[in-house]
Structures
1.
Amino acid sequence: MSTSFKTSYHSASLRIIDRDMSLARMLDLYSLNSEFRQLPIVVTGISGMAIGFPLAFKLQLEICVVRKNGDSTNALRALEGYIPQGDFVILDDFIGCGTTVRTIISAIKKESPLANCVGVILYRLDAMDGWEKIDGIPIYYR
């Protein structure tokens, strides 16, 4: 077995372990917070889908994927899946400057003006970086 294969395999294994640990943390967080236990999940990007789909499946929640601007796709819409009509939560890996969260909310509101983001759930260990709220929306992390 070549060194590069070992390195790639090890790196992929660590990503899978990290994803599984993130999923376990998200399941725990959802079980502790009844205010969003039954709300639809909104995600964007590959990392959001990697955690969002298993979480939605496990908890039997609706899920919506917001396509990032410039994503190459055959889809005709910016949103795929369930489009929230009321309260929803965003599941994301981290918040840098808040652009992704604001873009997600804007895309959802364009299709469903009465939709309301009630929380942002972050799943990366180093995700907080000083954020407690974004535009008045609470940020949850475990």
Note: The chain has a mean pLDDT of 77.
2.
Amino acid sequence: MASKRVICSVGYLSIPPFTTDPRADDVADRLHSVAIRLLRCVRREDDATGLTGARLSALSVVVFGGPLTVGQLAAAEQVRSPTASKLVAELEAVGLVTRATSTVDRRVTEVQATARGRWMLQAGRRRRVANLTSRLADLGSDELAALDRAAEILEDVLADRDPDDP
């Protein structure tokens, strides 16, 4: 009798592979690990902002997805509304976002980024990209082309997902 592959086993919990192709499971596992390491490396650049990771994440959602309600921000950040409301208050206190009455429904208050909030997020992105650029600088043209193609493939794979799915 053939045994089933298991990609994770913790105590009584076993998680079976998600596909019948072992290579897809292995590639997904490696991509997951590399993505986490990559984000940890470039995230060090975020220390220059003086904001916590949660505040930067919320600001990013507002900059790229706003204006939006606190409830929409909470859903995007996968937190409860009181937590999102606290984040908005903290960002508002340092001048990175403002609250304004919706032009569509005057009963609704929306959160939008200020010019300073947009600038801070864009400056952070430039620092993270520069960090990654320096790590890629010694790669040859074939390696860079392979990474570029891999990025295209990942963009296509992720584009098929629900837009509300982070």
Note: The mean pLDDT is 85.
3.
Amino acid sequence: MSAPGADPATQASGAERIRAAFADSGKRAALMPYLMGGHPDVDTSRACLDAAIAAGADLIELGIPFSDPLADGPIIHAAGAALGLE
């Protein structure tokens, strides 16, 4: 529940923001890039995030590197390994 007078855009839950992103996309597919946080370095990662926003991303999935990505595919695993997590 939001505080009285609070901006609904900043007070919405994650699920509500995701629902709104799909509702706002109309009949087109939503643009949802996946970015590995910190890959290949922090500055480039931030530039990629800014570029995704500028390109009109509806949602952005930001991956958190970890050492045992059991459910991730080979590309995401390689990105995490490149950060020295193996």
Note: The first strand starts at residue 34 and ends at 36.
4.
Amino acid sequence: MPSSKRVVVEVLLYAALLTLVVSRRLLALVRRRLRAMADRTPEQRWGAVFVSVAHELLSVATRPLAATRPLLRRLDKVLLHEAVDPNAARHGLLASVEQRTHRLHPMASAA
């Protein structure tokens, strides 16, 4: 979504930075809650989980707390469950790249 308008580019950059900050902060909170299983929440998996609930997180952020309590309880369960990689022996992204075993996402190679 390229734009030649400076203000549009700035807004997109701020949105990307804000998303990164929120994602990292939420990942830190999830890892803290998971305690012993925190090491099984790789950033690559977290990115996919975060994207899948981002629209619901935005709803929570823009609505009154009382109206979002049921959604918050559901998101809490989903994030804690889905963040954990069920394959404990899976190599992380960095290790896969270093060993040259990383494969691009199928959609990325089609472009």
Note: The chain has a mean pLDDT of 88.
